[in-house]
Amino acid sequence: MAYTVTTQTRASRITTALGAVLIVVLFALPFFAGRGTIQDMFFILTMLVLAQFWNLLAGYGGLVSIGQQAFVGMGAYALFGGVILWGLDPVPAILLAGAAALVIAVPTAFFAFRLNGAYFAIGTWVIAEVFRLLVAQWKTLGGGTGTSLPRDATRDMWFVELIKEALDVRSAAARDILAYWLALVLALVTIGGIYWLLRTRRGLALAAVRDNTEAAKSVGVDAGRMKWIVFLTSAFGTGLAGGLIYMQKARISPDAAFSVTDWTAYVIFIVVIGGIGTIEGPIIGVLVFFLLQSLLADFGSWYLLTLGVLAIAIMLVAPRGLWGLLSERTGLHLFPIRRRLIGGRLTSSEE
Amino acid sequence: MIWIDTVIQGVLLGGLYALFASGLSLVFGIMRLVNLAHGDLIVMGAYLILVLVTLLGLSPFVAVLIAMPMMFAVGWLLQKFLLNRTLGDDILPPLLVTFGLSIALQNALLEGFSADSQRLPTNALTTASVDVGPITLGVMPLLTFGSAVLVIVALNQLFYRTELGRAFRATSDDATTASLMGIKPGNIFATATGIALVIVTIAALYLGLRANFDPNIGPARLIYAFEAVIIGGLGSLWGTLLGGIIIGVAQTVGAAINPEWQILAGHVAFLAVLLIRPRGLFPRVND
After folding, report:
1. Which of A268, A301, B41, B122 has a CA that sits 20 to 30 A from residue A339's CA?
2. Which chain B residue's Cα is nearest to A131?
3. What is the pLDDT of residues A280-301, one digit of tens each?
4. Burial tier of A199 (Cβ tally within 10 Å: 0-12, 13-18, 19+)
5. Does B223 touch chain A (CB under 8 A)?
6. What value of ipTM does the predicted structure carry?
């Protein structure tokens, strides 16, 4: 009897099928949903991307960063710089946003990796502050007060004309639909990419480093290199998301683009509430987060107060988050990464 | 001459940062816990003093004496019932819980006191100055610096001359063995955080007397405190004072060149030290 090693479960096969249907529905959404829904979905998808990358960093890589706003802000400013200074189209400039985040991630990692654990966390925050203060000195992009994308650049953006005619909408709505589709693609590539990474040998090495660095090193895993790979990957992805978010906003200022609350605190709450160290967690987390935001939007600071207290409660009562609770009870894994042996008897020795 | 003046003002400002940092350093030294809500606790202390001053019509210097035991109780309870539950090998729970606490505290203060800037009432003493040769020094900055030195001397005495200090050091070295000797690590940690918040209250007094404060300034104070601790080297209180001075001098010198560079210069000094001496200037030998 032959063995097969697989990570698939019945739940994961059902997920794949349902996921395919969901993806089709999401792509078709602009054909039947209003502009408000599209904007909400854009927000959910971009926050999901940020959450997945923070989760990769903290949940899998063990690198708790409070400085992700550096990459959101730098990506966003690179996009604005590319459009305003070089006359690039905003859509391809999103790639420039990712590249810029990657470029600043190298010196950031060089400094931050000198600090361990909790000190790494505040270290990344300090570095993000440095980038915020430096960008505020960049007078051609509006300095401390910020700037807007030029009107003709947003009007003539790639695909906008096409979407306008195909869906028969005004150009502002067409831009939102374009941003939504790009966010959807980014979110799918992010989830698919992270899932793929975790199932490769590198992913196994990553899990080993997370569970026990010394033991992982002793079997030949290069722990330092894994940290670099994870840090640079999430910087790149976060930069892309930052560029996309500010392409849609079309208006930027250093305080908003480098906001620790918007781009790191929210993201941390999403991951912690949903379940850190799982791919499902951020998905659940972002839905809970959006629900809470809709419910508590009128209560100003009570909203953040609630989120903070909720995150503390979850961390104490259920450190694996809502998804952790669920999968502990049911054994459910929608994105399984554990390799399991199927068929054959474990005791026999066969060819 | 103006440069000497700038540097001396920076040194005195460093005293304030050392006060911010001492509590952080103490807590980290004993239980390896980094409290991300430290800056917000300083701001909370400032509001507590403000409330006492407004309600009871006291001088801030008297109000701080009432605020200190209250903040000690806050710290004790916080550590005993919340933070002790997060301690362990995993670094995530303490970080995420204190981060949640930071956000919750900021917004609770915002809800209670609005976003308006506040200031503790000043009197003749707080605006007075003394002439030392050609340089004029404010009495307030001198008092701040003096308090910082006093706090550090007192903490060192506490650590190395008292029974409680011995318990602190024993628990820090090995909590399990210490508990075999009849020490309750949970209570020791609670007392340490209580003391840290007493220092926070002193820092809050000078913060509120010297400048405006509002609920959102906590994180920046945390960052200055953190930079001072790292520059000085983990676990060294005198190192922390020096770290505070380096940040303070960098900030005033930066501001003298271009006012927009004040904060940036402090951060750059921190990164420079991190580059040259990753473990700080006076790292503890075994850690």
Report:
1. A268
2. B264
3. 999 999 999 999 988 887 887 8
4. middle
5. yes
6. 0.89
